[in-house]
Amino acid sequence: MPDLQVVRDDLLPPRAPGARRHLLSIRDLTRDDVERLLATAATFETSLEREVKKLPTLRGRTIVNVFYESSTRTSSSFELAAKRLSADTLSIKAAGSAVDKGESLKDTALTLDAYDPDVIVIRHPQIGAPHLVARVTGARVVNAGDGKHQHPTQALLDLYTLQGAFGRLDGLHVAVVGDVLHSRVARSLVQALALVGARVTLVGPPALLPRGIEELGCETSSEIDAIRAADAVYVLRMQQERMQEGANYVPSLREYAARWGVTPARLRPGQRVLHPGPMNRGVELTGSVADGADALIATQVRAGLVVRMAVLYDLLTTAPAAMRAVRAEQVA
Amino acid sequence: MLVSPPGPADDLVIRGARVLDAVAGVDAVLDVRVDAGTIAALGEKLPANGHRVVAGEGLVLAPGFVDPHVHLRTPGREDEESIASGTEAAAAGGFCAILAMPNTDPVVDTGAVLGSLLEAAGREARIPVGFLGAITRGQHGAELAELGELADGGAAGFSDDGRPVASAALLRRALQYASVTGRRLALHCEEPALSRDGQMHEGPVSAELGFAPYPSVAESLMVQRDLALARYEDEPLHLLHLSARESVEALRAAHAQGVAATAEVTPHHLCLTDEAVRSLDANVKMNPPLRGAEDRAALVEALRDGTIGVIATDHAPHARHEKEVPFEAAPFGVTGLETAFAALHTHLVAPGLLPLELLLARMSDGPARAYGLEPPRVAVGARANLVLIDRRTRWRVTEACFRSRSSNSWLLGETLHGQVRLTVADGRVAFSL
To answer: Do B211 and A216 touch (CB under 8 A)?
Structure first.
C-alpha cells in the first residue's frame, strides 16, 4: 500500500509554532493562505476516496460547534469534518441551552472554554460574535457565519468548487446575483475572489446592492443581462427571513423572480451555476437551472466537507515538525 | 440654572503659566491671583498673600471648559454614573460646568423630577451642574412636557436627546412655546424611518461589514427640517452632535439666512471615522454614528470657521456587561469627559488641524453662550473658572484612569498627548493632579 501523503512540506503553515490562529474573516487571509487551504482540501479529498475514511490527525483534540442559528449543511459538515480527523466533537444548539435562560454570549463562551476546547466553531446572528469568543476564550475560533458579515468557510468551499470546475481562479469572471445586502456569503465570496485575482460582478435590485460595495473590488449592475458575460453565475438565496416588514427592497418576490430570477434563457450554454443553499426554487432560480448539468450545487456541498477538514487541520497544526506526512499504516 | 457645590471659595495664586483666553484677547505669561473664588489680579510677580501657590511654568491657563451634553444616568442607572462621579470625572477633564440630559428613568419631564435632581446636585456635585428638561412627556414625542414649569424650576434648556422630535407639527409647537420660557430647544436630528435598525454609517465599511446602515441623510434631512421650522418661526435652536457633511452645509446655509442656530460636535466625530468600526468594538458604537473621512473633514472645517461653535462630549456611560456583547446588541454611546481635551489636542491640535486657542474657545465660550450661561473668562473681576493644562505630558488611557463609574471609552489603550493639571470651578479647586 502506498504512503498517504497528507500534507506536503511546502503546504505547511508559515506561522510560528504556538501562535493561536482563528478563521474569522476572509480579510484576515493572504492569497498564500487561501492556496494552502485549497491544496490541503484537495489532499483530504484523495483520502476520502479510501474505504476507511477516518484519519488520526486530530486525535485527542476537542472541537466544539456552537450554532445560534439554524443550519443543515454547515453544522453537519463541520461535525463530520472533525470526526473524519478523529477529533472529539461537541455540538451545541442555542435552543435548549442556557442561552434560552438569557445567558450572555460571553458567559456561554467562558463556560465552553472551561473544557479547554482546541477549536470553537460558531454561528451567530450578530456580527462580530466569533470575534468576541476569540477574545474571551483560549480556543481557536472558526466563524461559521456571523449575521450579515462573514461566512469564510463557505467562500473557501466556493473557491475550491470553482477551481475544480475551471482549473483556475485567476482571471475567472463570476457574476453574483441576488440579495447581496443581507448576504454574508456574498461578502465573503467577493473578498475571496478578489484575493485570488478573479473578476466579480454583483447583480441585483438597487436596494439590495449595498452602497459602497464596489470598494471591495467588484463591479455592480442592476441588469440581469450582466450575468451573461461571466464564466460562472453564483445565485444567492433571496433571504425572506431577513426582509424587514415594509422595507420594500422589491415590490414582491414575484416581481423579483421575473426580473432577476436565473432561468435557462438568461444563461449561456455551458455557464456554470452555483448556489450556497438552501434554495428557493422558482424565486432566485428555476428548478431546471438548479437541476441542470451545468449546476455545481452538489459539488459545493461535497467541497464543504474537505474544505472544513482543511481549515480545522490548518488551525491546529502550527508546529511543522508535528505534522509530517501521515503514513497509511497510521490511518485508523 | 447651574447648581454649585457647597463649601467656601478658594484663595489661589497660579504662577507663570501662559494665560490663553482668545475671546478676552489675552495670550501672555502671567501670574493669576484668585481671592475668595474671584480673579483679583493678573500680572507679573504677584505677591502670594498667603494663598495656595500653584506652579504654572510651562503650562497653559485657560477659561474652564463647559460641557453642554452629559448623561449623568441619574435617576435610574446610578450603577453607570451618579451626579458625584460624573461631576468628578468632568472636573478631571477640565470642565467647570456641565449640563445633563433628561433621558433618565424617570425622564426629567416635570418640575418635581427636576427639583429632586437640583437638590441632589446641591449636595453631591463637585462642579456646577445644570439639567435640561424633556421637550415631550416621557420623551415619547406625542405631547409637550410642561416647559414653563420646567423653566421656572431651573431647567437649562429642553431636549429629547437620544430621540428626534419626529413630528414636525409638534416641533413647531415646541419652538413657539419655548420662546415664552426663555430657554432653547436642543435637537437630536434623526429621521427614524431612514435610520431604523441602523448600526453604523452607510458607506463602503458598512457594505463590507454587513451592518444595517444609518445613512448621513437620516441626520441631514432632519437638520434641514428643523432649521426650516426655526426660520419660519424665527426662533433659535441648538443642534446636538452633528456628524454629517450635509448637516454642516445646511447649517451654514441657514446661518446665511439669519437663523439663530448653534450646533455642537463631539470629540469622537472629530477624531474618528467609520473605519474605526472595523474593530467591531462596541466602544465605537454611538448615535449618530462615526461617519466618513469627508464628513470628519467638514466637521473640523465647521469648527474652524465657527459654523459649529460648540464641542460637547455626549458623555454616555454604559455598564461593562452591556458593551461586552456583539456590536449590534450593544447600546449606543461612549464616555468622554475625562479624555475630551487630550483627545482633541492629540488628534487635531498636534497635527495642525486646529489652533489651540480655537479648541479652548470651542470647549468653553461656545458652549456657555449656546445655553446663555456666563462664559468663563480669565479677567479681573470674573469668577474663577479655570483650567491649567500640561501640553507635553503623554499618558495612556486605561480603565484605572477613570473617575467615571463607566469605562466605555473609544480611547482605551491609546496614548494621549496633553493633560489637565488643575480645574477651578466657580471659585473652588475641583481637581488637581
So the answer is: no
Beta carbons of B327 and A128 less than 8 Å apart: yes
Residue B335: inside a domain = yes
Question: For residues B24 and B62, what is the distance between their CA atoms, to the nearest angstrom?
Answer: 11
Residue B140 lies in a domain: yes
- Across the interface, whether the CB atoms of B209 and A129 are under 8 A apart is answered no
Active site residue A73: yes
- Which residue among B196, B213, B280 places its CB closest to the CB of A131? B280
Q: Domains plus CATH for chain A? A: 9-147+307-330 (3.40.50.1370), 152-300 (3.40.50.1370)
CA distance A212 to chain B (A): 4
In a domain, B284, yes or no: yes
Question: Number of folded domains in chain B?
Answer: 1
Q: Is residue B68 part of a domain?
A: yes
* Closest chain A residue to the Cα of B203, Cα to Cα: A212
Q: Which range of residues forms the domain containing residue B303?
A: 64-376
Sequence-distant (6+) residues with CB within 8 A of A167 are none
Residues in chain B: 433
Q: How far apart are CA B96 and CA B431, in angstroms?
A: 10
Taking an 8 Å Cβ-Cβ cutoff, which residues of chain A contact chain B? 104-106, 124, 126-129, 131-132, 146-150, 184, 187, 191, 210-216, 244
Q: Which pLDDT band, with edges at 50, 70 and 90, does A102 fall under?
A: confident
pLDDT in tens, B284-306: 999 999 999 999 999 999 999 99
Contact: B328, A106; criterion CB under 8 Å: no
Q: What span, in angstroms and rounded, lies between the C-alpha atoms of A291 and A293?
A: 7
What does the pLDDT look like over A188-211, one tens digit per residue?
Answer: 999 999 999 999 999 999 999 999
Distance (Å, rounded) from C-alpha A315 to C-alpha A298? 26
Residue B230 DSSP code: H
**How many residues does this entry show for chain A?**
332
How would you label B3-19 residue by residue, b for 16+ Cβ within 10 Å and e otherwise?
bbbeeebbbbbbbbbbb
Q: Is A101 noted as a catalytic residue in this protein?
A: yes
**Active-site residue identified among A36, A84, A151, A266:** A151
Convert the pLDDT of each residue in B378-430 to its tens digit.
999 999 999 999 999 999 999 999 999 999 999 999 999 999 999 999 999 99
Task: Determine the residue of chain A that is closest to B215 in CA distance.
Answer: A211
**Cα of A170 to nearest chain B Cα, Å:** 22
Query: Which residues of chain A does B201 touch, with a Cβ-Cβ cutoff of 8 Å?
Result: none
**Active-site residue B314, yes or no?**
yes
For B185, counting Cβ atoms within 10 Å of its Cβ (0-12 exposed, 13-18 middle, 19+ buried), the class is buried
Alpha carbons B322 and B212: distance in angstroms, whole number: 20
Domain CATH for B321 = 3.20.20.140
